[in-house]
Amino acid sequence: MNSFDWLSHMGIPEVDRFDIVEVKFKGGRKEYFRNVDHQTYTTGDPVVVDVPNGHHIGYVSLQGELVRLQMQKRKVKNDDNILRIYRVANQKDLDKWEEARNREIPTLYRAKQIIDEINLKMKLSDVEYQADNSKATFYYSADDRVDFRELIKILASEFKIRVEMRQISLRQEAGRIGGIGVCGRELCCSTWIHDFKSVSTSAARYQNLSLNPSKLSGQCGRLKCCLNYELETYMTALKDIPNVDKPLQTEAGTAKLQKTDIFRRLMWFSYNNDNNWFSVDCDRVSEIIAQNKEGKKPFDLQHDTAFEGEENNTKSNSDLEALDKKFSTTTTKKKKKKKKKPKLQGSADQPAQPNQQPQRNKPQQQPKSEGRPPRDKQQQGRPSKKRRNPEQADSSPRNQEAKKPQDKRPQDKKPNRPQRQGMESKALGNQPDKPKESKKKKFPPRNKGKNNNKGDNTNE
Question: The pTM is what?
Answer without folding.
Answer: 0.57
